[in-house]
Every structure is written in C-alpha cells, then in structure tokens.
Design brief:
This protein has 324 residues and is an alpha+beta fold. The chain has one domain: 2,3-Dihydroxybiphenyl 1,2-Dioxygenase, domain 1, CATH 3.10.180.10. The chain is 16% helix and 32% strand. It is globular, with a radius of gyration of 19 Å. The structure holds zinc ion. The site of zinc ion has 5 residues, from strand 1 and strand 12.
C-alpha cells in the first residue's frame, strides 16, 4: 500500500515537460492521451521503470485558466530526496528560476516548498528513507540528488472526522502523527510514500479547478483482488466508487471521499512496459488499442513535444554548501 500516483492539471504541455523532466529530473515514462479527452495529452513522470509510488501525472490543457487550491482538495504534493541533497536543490531552484520558500521542518524533515510553472504547490522533503526507493539516474539531475518518488500528499479539509473514517476504515490507513492542524496518516509499512496528511482549514476558500491544481491521488493495490476488497470497504461506508476502469498501465477505481477529494485505487501492474520497451519509455505517443486506428487524427491536434530543457538563468560551477 501507499501512494501510487498523483495527477494534476497543467497548462502548456511543453512547459510541463521542461519543468518535471528538465528541472526536477524525473523520467517522462509515458506520453499518451487523456482517455476521457483524446485531443489532449496525459503525461506520466517517474523513476526508471515508472514504479508505482514514483509517479506524477498531468493533463495539460493549453490555455487552461489557472486554478486555486481550496478546501476539499489535495493542496500540496511532497517529493522525497536524500537529506544531503537539500543544498543541491536550493541552488538548482535559484538557477532555474523556480518559485520556492526558505527551508522549514514540518514533521522534523527539512523541507523546501516550491511551485511549478502553473503555480501547483509542491515540496521537496529530505528523508533518510528516500533512497530505499528508486529514481531516474540518467536525467539532468545527478543520481545522488535525484527525486525518489512521492513522499506525501496534503489534503485541505473542512473537518477531519469523515475523511479519517474513509482513510482508516475504507483504505487501511492509521493515525501516525500530528502537528498543528495537520494529522498524518500512514498505511502498510509506513515511511516515505505512505503518508497522507490531512490539514483542517475549515472556512478557507473553496477550490477553483484549473491549471496548477491536483485532480486526484491514487493509492496502491497489489492486484485486482485487493482492489476489489478496498472497493467493497468504501462502498460499505456509504461511498460510491466507480466500476474498475482499464487504464492500460493499471486498473483503476475512483471514489470521492466525504470531504470531496477524489481518491483512486490503482493496481501495481501491468506497468509501463506493456506497450513500449523500458529503454524508450515515453519517447513516442502511445494510444489505447481502441483508439489505435485514430492515430493520425489524434497526432494532428496534439502539440509537438520536444526533449525537456531546463532553463538555467545562469550557470555556476559549484553548488553552495547546504544551509541547514
Ligand atoms: Zn489516476
């Protein structure tokens, strides 16, 4: 168990590639279309194989209005790095013009809050167990400083109780920690990648969908049997999950929790090598078989994407020492 992927909404697709692959150094592991809107991309970023838990995915809608985080939404997505990488990332954010904050220490971990080019709220969290999980070693970020998957998501909620019930009784989470208005839940073996933080922000603004917001978080199910068990559990709590939906790379069930955040339960398999080889993941446009015959017309309306480019403001040969 743990987080499988986090899916957000972006504006320009190339800008999204340049930021997540070019600046953050994640591997673009799949370039496909939004199955519910085939005229737009669905881009997946992750580690070498696109392992569940390493994945950030985006629906880029060119010209989309900018959204706003609010109550009943996943506001912040946290990514794991090794503790010795903090200085490297502060330097990289400065040289690449990334909007970021000074270092803080929520839950005892050195953390840099930052925003992507659409204003999406993200964090890099330094954690000793980051390197237990894989990374993309052949990207623009040196492998010792690479991002090791999603660390946590932070939900902004009106109140805790009903969301807690969905997490604990529906999905098998437990209370792990708390700090200020935030209650941390973990699942399975716990640790980086298994955290959901619920921050009670009652009375705050309602969200505005659009670029720079998170659409949903997906949690891992080992296989379809476990997925169906979880589906039954959330149904017994009075929630209304979808049927199992084939997403080619995994099977999905979606359910809106009582606080209005969209959850997904996604199977670990079959994974991203199901329709292209590991060495060339993400290089060509892949389509679900039902749309294979429409390739020419789909390719015509999608904007061309080229290889990621970080956009350094200026080059400096040495990263400064970590200021921690
Ligand atoms: Zn999803």
């Amino acid at each position: 168990m743990g987080i499988h992927h986090v899916t957000g909404i972006a504006g320009d697709a190339q800008q999204n590639v340049d930021f997540y692959a070019g600046v953050l150094g994640l591997r673009l592991v799949k370039k496909t279309i939004n199955y519910d809107d085939p005229r737009t991309y669905h881009l997946y970023y992750g580690d070498t194989e696109g392992t569940p838990g390493s994945l950030l995915t985006f629906f880029p809608w060119p010209g989309a209005r900018r959204g706003r985080a609010g109550v009943g939404q996943i506001a912040v997505t946290s990514l794991a790095i090794a503790p010795e990488s903090i200085g490297y990332w502060l330097h990289r954010f400065v040289t690449n013009g990334v909007n970021h904050d000074a270092l803080t220490r929520p839950f005892g971990n050195a953390t840099i809050a930052f925003r992507d080019r659409d204003g999406l709220m993200l964090e890099l969290v330094a954690t000793e167990d980051a390197t237990v999980r894989g990374a993309w070693a052949d990207g623009p970020v040196p492998s010792e400083h690479a991002i090791h998957g999603v660390h946590a998501v932070t939900l902004w909620e009106e109140s805790l109780e009903r969301t807690e019930q969905a997490l604990v009784e529906g999905l098998g989470f437990r209370r792990a920690d708390s700090e200020d208005q935030t209650t941390r839940f973990s699942v399975g073996d716990g640790g980086s990648g298994a955290f959901v933080d619920v921050r009670v922000v009652g009375g705050f603004l309602s969200p505005l969908g659009g670029a720079g917001t998170i659409h949903h978080v997906a949690f891992r199910a080992r296989d379809t049997a476990e997925q169906l068990q979880l589906r039954e559990k959330v149904t017994s709590l009075g929630l209304h999950p979808t049927p199992v939906i084939d997403r080619t790379y995994f099977q999905s069930v979606y359910v809106r929790e009582p606080g209005n955040v969209l959850f997904e339960v996604a199977t670990d398999g079959p994974g991203f090598t199901v329709d292209e080889p590991l060495k060339s993941l993400g290089e060509s446009l892949t389509l679900p078989s039902r749309l294979a015959a429409d390739r020419a017309s789909i390719e015509m309306v999608l904007p061309a994407l080229h290889r990621p480019q970080a956009t350094p403001l200026h080059e400096t040969p040495d990263a400064p020492k970590a200021n921690v």
